[in-house]
Amino acid sequence: MGEILLNKLLYVNEHQSCKNYQVEIDTGFKYLEVPPGTHVYEPKLQYNNVVILIEGECIISCNQYDNRKISSSEMVLLPRGALVDAYTQKDCKLLLFSFGMVRNVCDVNMLQSYYDLCNDIHYDFTPLEIRHPLNEFIDLLVFCLKSGMNCAHLHEIKHKEFFLYLRGFYTKEEIVQLFFPIMGKKLKFKDMVLKNYTKAENVEELIELLKMSKNAFYAKFSKEFGMSPRQWMLKQIRHQVFIKAAIPNITIKELMDLFNFDSPVQFNRFCMREFNCTPGELIKQQQEVSH
Fold it and tell me: In the chain, where are the structural domains located?
């Protein structure tokens, strides 16, 4: 084969002045080159993020999964709302794919139809290997982004194309392993709950945020999550308190404020019931583990 000629993007000014040109990327693809020793802390992700590590090595803690190594040619999903603490061990080149809801109806149906496979999967935040032809897709997309092609339509097309390659060249079990945290019988309803539950102080406020009738909400919720809304919200609060107690130098008052506890007595009672220790003891234990 002859030498491949890498062309430059033409008519850059016209491209960048288009109303669909994305200067800042909230959802879509972003290419990053990160030096070793870089530390990233995000207490609550706004979107789902697939971290595609093209080259390098990094350590990621995501919610209860601590210090997992991600290496070259691997990818992992960081779900919406997750607490993420990450640092790079080597020079890293990565592609970050951020999204709220899956856009293609076929892909939504695919993930919903694979939901029952979750019962057979032991999810442990294990990265998924990047292999052909997905690596070719990544290389071409990175080239376009580095050249300055940042059209909203490009991101929409590549969003759908990414899922197309997964569906065509990865097993159902591998796809479930990657998207396990956001899998559901009804993806839209589950995403709405995950997006809004942290804004609500109780179940009634969550129902208002979702603009649903009480009966419809309870019916869908129990079917999707397998427990009552109150039990699930308490579980989420317990989980988040446990994780955020490990934040360096966090105080009892800061923890209380994060989760809207009314008084030290109420928070102490919560910690004794859920963790069998006082708030101060919980923070001390988590700080020791994290270090």
Answer: 12-182, 187-290
Cα gap 69→71, rounded to integer Å: 6
3-state helix, strand, coil in the chain (%, to 5): 50, 20, 30
**What tokens were used for 145?**
């982004």
Could you tell me the CATH superfamily of domain 12-182? Jelly Rolls (2.60.120.10)
Cβ-Cβ contacts under 8 Å for 259 (sequence gap 6 or more): 237, 240, 241
Q: What is the mean pLDDT of residues 255-277?
A: 91
Give all strands (DSSP E) within the chain, no chain letters. 28-34, 39-42, 48-55, 57-62, 65-71, 74-78, 84-88, 92-99, 128-129
Q: Give pLDDT tens digits for 46-70.
A: 899 999 999 999 999 998 888 899 9
Q: What is the pTM of this model?
A: 0.81
Residues 187-290, CATH architecture: Orthogonal Bundle (1.10)
Report how far residue 120's alpha carbon sits from residue 125's, in angstroms, rounded to the nearest whole number: 15
Burial of 21 (0-12, 13-18, 19+ CB in 10 A): middle
Separation CA 277–CA 115 (nearest Å): 37
Reported as a single tens digit per residue, the pLDDT across 194-238 is 888 878 888 999 999 999 999 999 999 998 988 999 999 988 888
Strand partners, 253: none
Query: Distance (Å, rounded) from C-alpha 249 to C-alpha 113?
Result: 44
